[in-house]
Amino acid sequence: LQQKVEETELLKMELQMLETERVRLSLVEEKLMDVLQLLQQLRDLNISKRALGKILLSTLESCRDPQPGKAHLFEVLDTLYHELTACELLQRQPLEKARSRQSLSNPLVISC
């Protein structure tokens, strides 16, 4: 009986770890979708490869040293998201136009 109790506790801990990982991956997936949508908007606005490269290099430079306690992948995606939203081309685009295009369909969603 004691062995079954220990096994149950171990399985509960494993389940909690899996749930934590699932939530973390869900957050990463959400941030990745946001970044991909911004990249698609910038592509539609004909951003130059040079400008896009500068944004990417700036992101990588600011994320060179990971912050303690923060997932590095999420930190990079979050920084890239903020760098992209600060892009001058997106600042000039009317917000309503971007939202209406986004709400019609999401071509970035991949069904499994």
UniProtKB/TrEMBL annotation:
It holds the Pfam family CCD48. Keywords: Coiled coil. The gene is Efcc1. This is EFCC1 protein. Residues 1-45 form a coiled coil. It comes from Aegotheles bennettii.
